[in-house]
Structures are given as structure tokens and as C-alpha cells.
Design a protein that fits this description.
The structure is a homodimer. Chain A is an alpha/beta fold. The first copy, chain A, folds into two domains: 155 residues, SPOUT methyltransferase, trefoil knot domain (Alpha/beta knot), CATH 3.40.1280.10; 70 residues. Chain A contains ten helices and eight strands. In chain A, helix 1 links the parallel strand 1 and strand 2. Chains A, B: This is RNA methyltransferase.
Chain lengths: 262, 262
């Protein structure tokens, strides 16, 4: 069943964890969960006793195109049935208590899920109903609990956001994007020699206009300008622009100077 | 203005980044953003030209109690006005192009924001309108762009989820929760001596009932049982239960044995 045409061309990415929604109440939330799963590269969705039955058109409307995840979702009578073919099951639980069980952060859980799927084993993550969360019997069926570190003064997280954080950590656990890069369009990063050319150009014009006429202060002033321009990566295109700016500012001054002396 | 009583008792946590929503369209999303901010310990919200004006009752209804963040939000005519008192501004942008700018991951950005606020400087994060995202002039006002690593086949992220990921990473950047811990209620983790006591108890009963009668296989069988019980942490309470289980199973066998021989 597809609620709208043109859903994203989603497919399973490798061996990935199953998201298991236990007794979800609102179909809109199931759709929003599918969207969050797609963001993080998850595909397999199982529903245990959805309150309003299944399928529900409203789920597809709130999935923003993650239709294929909903199309492929399965429905189960109980948690046992939803996890029977899996080797590891984690349960999300914001406030665990009176229970002896390993507790993982979302990041720690994602790393373990990557290790488990990497060995070809099946795994799943239980998410409880919107209001009550998982009950004690649900949690007793899990290897470990996952508890997100979040502001203890405000832990209330909606279902789709809980899935979003887990899906994001799942994706990040196998992502190698450097924390900071300079995006440079077509232009290359200028090397130190190209930067030196510009600083010489600037210094020459500043010498000519008299800005650096104080011989005692001149070395420090040049050094301060250098510090500013050496601070980070500059592209060759940006250097060309800076050369132009200096040339044009100096030219304006020269023309004005000529006018003044004429 | 407070849309409902009993909102969470939220207050700023230290020097934290300002979330700046640029031309947000739906007031519901502004409320959901406030909720996500509260989850991650963010407090300061600024709105640039909200489409439907401000305040909007619907925002408070979707904030799930994060009222104080909305109460304290300020409204600005343009991005310049919203960032004038800040020292660093990052802009979220899912698909940057034709632009020369550092690009950070959410995690890399959160680490830099922590370093900036730790020096007592002010910083903010720009989030664009729901449909179009930030325009080129908005992005030109930022030090760096933040781009979340996510499934390239499905990048569509709603506004509150974009804020959720950033708020979560902000919180995580200063969180020391170990990735895995055993939660043990009141009971303590058993030490190796206590575990040994149980294994001896089990072995003695298995010797008595004849399960280990094959002298040649006995050492390996005991070792395999030991491997199972030594695998992870066991609490003292769990060991007491296991002692009871073995005693009772053996007792049942003894009584039955007595009946059979009588």
C-alpha cells in the first residue's frame, strides 16, 4: 500500500537493525518514525499491536516519502513474535529502575549494533508506546537497555525523535566525515607562496600610500596583517579577489591624488 | 505569555548557543523546536520574521511544556539583527554548494560550540525555513556551515528533528556517561569468589545426580558451564536466585528418587 506516488527509492542498506514499535498509538507517529529511519539508513520496521490497527493511511501521509519502509512493515501479536528471529534485542527506556540490566547510551548502543550486524547477526530495537513506554515484561526480553543522555530536567521525547536519535547514531557509527572541512567549490586552497604574493602586494601599496610610514612600528603592523590573513585556509579565487580589492582601492587613491595635485 | 500551566521549570544552563529560526513557517514547528531544545539543554530562541507573526498559541501547544523557552524567545526583523551580539554563527545547510565555507558535522560543530562558549563568547545556530532552507545571504553571515551526515538517499529532515540532532550533540559534547554500564538496583556485582561458590555448588549437585559421571568429559563440561556463567557481570541477588534454583531442582530429584526407590 502506498499513500502517495513518488516516494523515495528506499531499500535496505546492508544488514541493519529492525525498529520495533511496541503498541504504538498514533499512526502519524509511525509515519514520522519511518521518515526518521530513512534519514539514518534504517529500513526494517515491525509493529506490535498498533492501537488503531494497520495499515493506516495517516502513517503514509506523515512519512514524507519514506513509503517503502511502511509498505514493508510487518505486524505482530506480541513482542516474542516480533523478536523471535533476532539474536540481539535492545530496548529504549528513558528512566530504567528496579531492574538488573546493562544500560547503553545511544552512541554505545549504535556501536554495539554495528558490531552485531557486522557479524551477520540479526538485531532489533524496541520503542515503547507514546505515553507509557515499554512495560517490565517488554524490557525483560531485551539484552540491554538504551538510555539517551539528555537534559535530566526535560527528558520528554516524542516517538519519532527517539527513533531519530537512534537512527542518527546508527548512521554516524559508520560515517567517516571529518568534523571540519573547507568546502571550496571549484577553486583550490591557496598555498603559502600565493598568500605571500598577496601580502607583498598589500604591503607595497600600503608603503606607497604612507600607511606604513612609521619605520619603528612598520614590522609589527605588517606582522599583524600577516597574522590576520594566515589564520585559516584561503582559496585562490578569494586571493584573486583580494588582489583586485587592493589594486582598485589604491588606484582610486592615485586618481584622486592626481586630481588633487592637478 | 504561557499557553498552559505547569510547564517545565526550565532555565538557561550555562552559556549556551542561541537557536535562530530564520523565517519559520509553522508555529507548531516553533513549539516542537522549543521541546527539542529543552531535551538538549538549550534555552535561547530567536525568531527572524516568523511567517504568521508572533506569539502564536499553537507554538505553546506543541512545546510539551517547554513554555519558558517560548516565553523568552525574541523576534527580529532580519538575520543581522538576530546575530549582532554574537561572536560566532553557524548555519545548518543540508546541501551546500557554490560557496566557500568551512563545513562541520553536527558533532564537530557541537564540539566547537562548546569550545566557544567555554571562552565566554556568544554563539548561535541558524536554521532555515521549512521548505526552502537558508538562502545565500543568510549563509554568507555564518562562520561555518553545519551539515549532518545522514543517508544521502533520504536527507529530508523536519525542522524540529534538525534542531533535535544539534541539541542532542550539544548535550553529548559535555556528557560523560559510559557507553555501557550494568544497572544493578540495590544489589552489588558478585565477585569471582562468590561466582566460584555457585559453580562449586552447581558442580557438586551435578556430580551427585550423575550428570558429570563421564570422568573423561567431566573437566570440559565443567569448563563450558564456567564459561557461560563467567561471561559477564552477575549480581549477588542473581547468584542467590541461581543457588536456590539448583538446590530446588536437586531437591525435587532427590524426593522423586526417594519415591521411586520406596
Amino acid at each position: 500500500m502506498t499513500g502517495r506516488d513518488g516516494g523515495a527509492d528506499l531499500a535496505p542498506i546492508g544488514n541493519s537493525p529492525v525498529v520495533i514499535l511496541v503498541r504504538p498509538q498514533l499512526a502519524e507517529n509511525v509515519g514520522a518514525v519511518a521518515r526518521a529511519m530513512a534519514n539514518g539508513g534504517l529500513f526494517h520496521l515491525r509493529l506490535v499491536k498498533p492501537r488503531d490497527g494497520w495499515p493506516q493511511e495517516r502513517a503514509w501521509r506523515s512519512a514524507s516519502g519514506a513509503d517503502r519502509i511502511l509498505d514493508a512493515a510487518s505486524v505482530h501479536e506480541d513482542v516474542d513474535g516480533a523478536v523471535a528471529d533476532l539474536h540481539h534485542v535492545f530496548a529504549t527506556c528513558p528512566r530504567p529502575r528496579h531492574i538488573v540490566k546493562p544500560v547503553l547510551t545511544a552512541r554505545g548502543g549504535a556501536a554495539e549494533l554495528r558490531a552485531i550486524t557486522g557479524r551477520g547477526l540479526g538485531c532489533g530495537i524496541l520503542f515503547g508506546p507514546e505515553r507509557a513506554g515499554l512495560d517490565n515484561d517488554d524490557m525483560a526480553r531485551a539484552d540491554a537497555l538504551i538510555r539517551y543522555p539528555l537534559n535530566p530536567g526535560f527528558m520528554s521525547l516524542n516517538l519519532a525523535q527517539a527513533v531519530m536519535i537512534m537512527a542518527y547514531e546508527w548512521w554516524m557509527a559508520d560515517d567517516g566525515t571529518p568534523p571540519r572541512t573547507l568546502m571550496t567549490n571549484e577553486s583550490h586552497i591557496a598555498n603559502k607562496g600565493e598568500l605571500e604574493n598577496f601580502i607583498r602586494h598589500l604591503t607595497a601599496e600600503l608603503d606607497e600610500c604612507g600607511f606604513l610610514r612609521n619605520e619603528q612600528k612598520r614590522p609589527g603592523m605588517v606582522r599583524n596583517l600577516r597574522h590576520l590573513f594566515e589564520r585559516g585556509e584561503v582559496t585562490q579565487q578569494e586571493l584573486r579577489t583580494l588582489h583586485g580589492v587592493v589594486t582598485e582601492l589604491a588606484l582610486g587613491r592615485k586618481i584622486r591624488g592626481r586630481d588633487e595635485t592637478s
